[in-house]
Amino acid sequence: MSSTSSAAPEAPGGPPPLRSPPDKVSPAGHIVQVLGHVRLESLAAGLSGGVVSTMLLHPLDLVKLRFAVSDGLELRPKYNGIWHCMKSVWQLEGMRGLYQGVTPNIWGAGASWGLYFFFYNAIKAYISEGRQTELSATEHLVSAAQSGMLTLTLTNPIWVTKTRLVLQYSSDPSTKQYKGMCDALVKIYRHEGVAGLYRGYVPGLFGTSHGALQFMAYEELKRGYNKYNSMPSDKKLTPLEYISMAALSKIFAVSTTYPYQVVRARLQDQHNTYNGAIDVIRRTWRNEGARGFYKGVVPNVIRVTPACCITFVVYENVSRFLMGQSK
Question: Which CATH number fits domain 40-69+76-326: 3.40.50.1820, 3.30.365.10, 1.50.40.10, 3.20.20.70?
């Protein structure tokens, strides 16, 4: 008998065959394996959802940011509520004022949602490879957190420019510090360097918990709903069902993590200077109390809940359409 025959399985009841230990995979190897699961359909579907929701709801994002940084500086306009803010901006600058900063917002939201779904689905597919069981809630949470970190690293400069453009209060274009997205990017880099483009990055990393909690809740709601109705886990739901699950998951995530958005917005604001996230937290608590960390939360919930619903419905439908076309 040849020497290779010794590796053949024993007769039933005998000892199990010896197996070679699995090869160790380097971190670079893991990245290559993850990239093997990427789908451009996820990128395109997520980008579509982000762009559509941002175009429809940008004015509420502007209101949320202006409330989030309202720390009592005299140069800032004073607003009595959401509608008073929108009315004041409209009277001062018209529709253009309500869409101040929309270009980086569209770029940022489109890129963020596209990259988020792109990385998230690739990481999920990598973890699921060769498994018969569904991912647990913890695995969904970790996958979403990793996706958020990668996405934030690529998109943080866009969010800094959006914040700066939204917080230009003058109606006279000649007195504004930035003329547009590209001008803001160039000026921030020229005067503040790479550090300026990555202001708010650290609280943004904490903010990846927002997306992680949202995606975990969304996946668990879908799975629980399908299980309750004895349906396959990948069954297509109705738009109303997607909207309900997206809204519930978003409200849960916002209510849990909103204070980091206030800290991040204040770090990115050109009208005030802080010595880091801890300084923002200390000064906000001293001057405004716990309430200061929730400024702008109402317009944020009003904005992000429908934005999330629109994004997820567009994503699910565009994704299924593109995947159907690619088969």
Answer: 1.50.40.10
Residue 195 to residue 179: CA distance in whole angstroms: 21
Six token digits for residue 263: 């800290």
**Contact indicator for 225, 245 with CB cutoff of 8 Å:** yes
Looking at the chain, the number of H-run helices and the number of E-run strands are: 11, 0
What is the pTM for the complete model shown? 0.65
Per-residue pLDDT tens listing for the chain (327 residues): 433 333 433 344 444 444 444 455 555 555 556 655 656 777 788 788 888 888 888 888 888 888 888 876 666 788 888 888 889 889 888 888 889 888 888 888 888 888 888 888 888 888 888 777 888 888 888 888 898 899 999 999 999 998 898 888 777 777 788 888 999 999 999 999 999 999 989 888 877 888 888 888 988 898 888 888 888 766 778 888 888 888 899 888 888 888 888 998 898 887 888 888 899 999 999 999 999 999 888 888 887 788 888 888 888 888 778 776 655
